[in-house]
Amino acid sequence: MDLDEIIYSRVAKFLQFRKKEAIASLPQLAKLETLRFRLKIIASAVSGKNIEIYPAEKEGGYRNDNFFLPEQISFFPDYTQNVSFYLFRTIYLCVQSQKQLNWKPGQNKTETESFQVAMSSAPQVLTEIETQFPAVMEIHHELSALIPKIPQDSRTNLWHFMYGKWMENQPEEKTREKQNPHKNSRKKIEDELRTILKARAVEEIKVIEVDKKTQEDYVMTHNFEKVETAEEFNGIWRDFDGEDELKDHADALNELSMKYAVRVDETTHSVLHADFQENTNIAESTESASNPETCITYPEWDYKKKIYKPDFARVYPELFSSNDEDYFKKTLSEHRILLGSLRKMLTSLNNKRQQVRRLNQGEDFDMESLVDLYTDIHSGHSPDEKIYLSSRKREKDISITLLLDLSLSSDGYSDNNRIIDVEKQVAILFGEILNEFFIDFSVAGFYSNTRNFTAYLSFKTFEEKWEKARFSIGGVQPSGYTRIGAAIRHAGSLLKTRKTANKWLILLSDGKPNDFDRYEGKYGIEDVRQALKELSSENIQAYAFAIESSAKFYLPQMFGENHFQILSSPDNLILSLVKLYERIRALS
């Protein structure tokens, strides 16, 4: 960059930072992120549906069972009033969706028309709110009286924020017959993900098919009025060079609308996170992966039709053989104090004794058995002579599978710790402890790329010795997507073969199902939920850990109460695993 560009860039960044800092310091500022979970509960209770709450690019609206609300609100002078705005908008969207006041599939209207029709239909919604929720209507009266007193610039219409805009409901999904989303599914992604940024919120995504002919015919053009900035898609296709320039364009991306998206096969170097609802315009893949003889097929649950899709997801089991002995030794060296503490905790836990009742001989009398013996004698029945009890060491009748999410989302950071490294270190430390106490366990990881390819990498099988397997864990790197349902079903099929009485599957994941084809939002959540029900029917218990804060919106829906934990920092993960192991031992 030239000197004038550097000066301009730094001045612009400084002013942008000052603006963000000023907004963040406002005492009346209310953020959706802090209210999202409570608003979801309210919306689901009022509508009788499983509503998801997402941040909107601006005013928001609703689409199917997804509500979009502004990321933050500071228009009103008091914090309570801004919080009340979120409550009003949530109830408003519930009533609006009940009345089906939205564009139907295929009705492509302009943004101006969407706002106009939303304003004209507002009286219908408000009349219903006044009947059903008079207290919410009082909030509307209070906020409406304040709006004329609030200064507004030419780009902001507070009435649009009050009533939102109409959005287009999504149609039923269709299968795309010709699609090759991943030409070589089994190829490992060797290039490390270098840059991760958070994108602006967006409520509508339009997936664009790649026009290869236009790409080939593309001639470089110079738009000097927008030098060094990102532009919205205007129909002109550029080639995908795979370069990592995300940081260089970070300022421009803050102004970019994320409405348009295209899926390509080029290696990913950077990730721009954008939170949006499931896009049902992303079709299922119907092509088969290579080497079908090496795969195992599993069904997938279609929650809308309430049926299984038989032999739908393909899982490729693989024994991961790449060794990284240095990573293993480094992990033990850096966490030797923690490992010693865990060893003491689990030694105490494994040495606990339990009382065994109704024995022919023992250290003490079993009072209940004595009462039964006395009753039998006086009633003329032959008494049971097993009247003793004894304290014995508990048998370790347990099998555990530790399942790691190896998708690209694990390449992020939490509390300055890379999530994939936390998972690998936990697997190594927990594996060391389980091996010392002769617990039947396995360690595996998974990632996916469409329904046709879910890689299930076994670092340690149940039969394999830990001394050999422990070096393989350090060599794995993040790759692909997160088709949790297929991985859970395969892990469950392996657990079912164990002859132990207590079987547990422990999942380390961000808790958000997604894949290259349609496995987003509620579809993925419901499939995982159904897979967990299948495990439960086989007497296999499941538990999930996550250190990603957004997991609180997904794990409760899939795993249910008391079967998951969201941790504030990665350091707590291994201690939480020990507590779970204590719970497992108590139930055995």
Annotate the secondary structure layout:
Layout (H helix, E strand, L loop, with lengths): L2 H22 L5 E2 H16 L4 E5 L4 E3 L2 E5 L1 E2 L5 H20 L12 H22 L1 H13 L11 H6 L31 E4 L7 E2 L4 H6 L32 H5 L5 E2 L8 E4 L22 E7 L4 E13 L5 H10 L1 H15 L2 E7 L4 E2 L1 H12 L9 E6 L4 E8 L7 E2 L2 E2 H18 L3 E9 L5 E7 L5 H4 L14 H12 L6 E7 L12 H17 L2 E7 L8 H5 L4 E3 L5 H16 L1
Parallel strand pairs: 2-4, 6-9, 7-8, 11-19, 15-18, 15-20, 20-21, 21-22
Antiparallel strand pairs: 1-5, 3-4, 10-11, 12-14, 13-14, 16-17, 18-19
What is the mean pLDDT? 78
Helix residue percentage: 25-40%
Report the biggest beta sheet as strand number plus sense, adding barrel if it closes. Answer: 8 strands, mixed
Radius of gyration over all CA atoms, rounded = 29 Å
Question: Beta fraction of the residues?
Answer: 15-25%
Question: What's the CATH H-level homologous superfamily of the largest domain?
Answer: von Willebrand factor, type A domain
CATH topology of the largest domain: Rossmann fold
User: In the CATH classification, which architecture of the largest domain applies?
Assistant: 3-Layer(aba) Sandwich
What is the tally of helical segments? 17
Global morphology:
globular
Low-confidence spans? 174-196, 223-230, 277-281
Distance between the termini: 65 Å
For the record, the count of structural domains works out to 4
Structural class: alpha/beta
The neighbouring-strand order within the major sheet is: 10-11-19-18-15-20-21-22
